[in-house]
């Protein structure tokens, strides 16, 4: 079992602080969610990936924002990054012949994270979540609409996604289901 350097409460508080800070710095839901989860857990003593890998993945993760390249047509970037972080924490490997471990990791993500979105927003899609959260969806590929959205977003569901995901990872640590690098 992984040993944390900070309490679960402190890690969750740090994640909340980073959610506000990173949304102002990095803007997009996917990259903010990804960075907050990885950095808050690292601060707490769990290294999901080396800093060099975090930097290397950042450009790819940022393309998941707003349903994928700001199309609005795919999975919410905060949800997609939550799935990625939980996948990292599960420690499953491409070299693993243990299909059961991958299936268990996927079931954990579905049952503890995705189910929350389906219950609350009836979807994990960017447009659906925005409509439910704000009452409308923006086309973030349009500069004017993107500017309007960024003026009122206040993190959209970033903090919510981060909190849910970090809690899930911390629970999985207690069960011995998390593998650090």
Protein described:
With 181 residues, the protein is mainly alpha-helical. The protein has one domain (8-175). 67% of the residues lie in helices and 0% in strands. It is built from 8 helices and no strands. The chain has helices at 8-26, 29-44, 51-62, 77-90, 99-121, 126-134, 143-152, 158-175. The longest helix has 23 residues, at 99-121. The two termini are 13 Å apart. The mean pLDDT is 88.
Can you summarize this structure?
The chain is mainly α. The chain has helices at 8-26, 29-44, 51-62, 77-90, 99-121, 126-134, 143-152, 158-175.
Order of helices and strands: HHHHHHHH
User: β content, as a range?
Assistant: under 5%
What is the count of distinct domains?
1
Number of strands: 0
Rounded average pLDDT: 88
The total of helices stands at 8
**Structural class by helix and strand composition:** mainly alpha
Distance between the termini: 13 Å
Task: Indicate the percent of residues in helices.
Answer: 55-70%
**Biggest β-sheet description:** none
What characteristic shape results from the CA principal axes? globular
Radius of gyration: 16 Å
Q: pLDDT below 50 for ≥5 consecutive residues: which ranges? A: none
Blueprint of the fold:
Elements: H1 8-26, H2 29-44, H3 51-62, H4 77-90, H5 99-121, H6 126-134, H7 143-152, H8 158-175
